[in-house]
Amino acid sequence: MHRTLDMPAPSDAEERRSKPPVVVYPNETLPPAGLDVLYAARQSMSKVAEIIVPPREAGSFRVPKGHFFRIVSMEGSQVGDLNLWNAADLSECFFSGKTRALHATHVGVGDRLWSTLPYLRPMATITYDTLGWYGWDADGAGIHDVIGTRCDPYTNRLLKGDDYHHCCHSNLSRALASEMNIPVREAEAHVHDVLNVFMCTGFTRDTHQYFMKASPVRPGDFIEFFAEIDLVGALSACPGGDCGSGHSSDLAPCYPLRVEIWQPDPESLAGRAFPERSPYPGTHGL
């Protein structure tokens, strides 16, 4: 908790605090996700590939544009850290901060995962979520957050003074290095803030600190996405397991996750427009 240094409040403090909140990015003008078409396309899809992500490890996968992919809980309550990249250009990757600003701290059906600048386009659209029933609980927590960054060995060293190599950051680095056949230090530079799949999180009401609690995910639960561009993905089965006690250690029970790739009938998407990169020319006033 930050220190106030006993700073006296001004006489008009309550008036200053009572100003109305203003949504930073009203999103009514965002390009529509076209869920009706995607719901119809789901009816014709068939599974064409899958990978199993072992506990405390990460796996990589590819999703062609116009396919669906699912992250599925298998054996027990387990959260996952998701990274996405443009399969043709790793510099275009998932932008959790802008996704949070355009949608909310936690995402669900109809929300889209946006890419980094200067591209800023939907990479994937959430089309189904068996945890959509959870909503917001009494602690203010929700599911699938874009506020946490990922557990990493640098913060672990800072706070605990030791090295742990199965943090999600390290897992994702190894998975991308293997997928792209590049050195792990090169891959690490492309690892970015994640979508915390199945993770139950919020901010404490008193100190506004990021907290986690045990995920409600059950075996068979899944979240589903539609790939708006050709994707490379990496998913880490977090060493925190359900993240109800801690992370960055071997203490929590952990379980595998499955990623499934589903192909719809191409005719079901006929006429659907896929997103192009931002048309902003990049002149920045010069």
Describe the structure.
With 286 residues, the protein is of the alpha+beta class. The protein has one domain. The protein contains six helices and 13 strands. It has helices at 13-17, 35-42, 96-102, 153-160, 168-180, 184-188, and strands spanning 46-53, 58-63, 68-73, 80-86, 89-93, 112-114, 122-129, 142-145, 195-203, 210-213, 222-227, 231-237, 257-263. Strands 2, 4, 5, 8, 9, 10 and 12 form a seven-stranded antiparallel sheet that branches. It has a six-stranded antiparallel sheet with strand order 1-13-3-11-7-6. Strand 4 and strand 5 form a beta hairpin. It starts with 12 loop residues before the first helix and ends in a 23-residue tail after the last strand. 40% of the residues are buried. The mean pLDDT is 96.
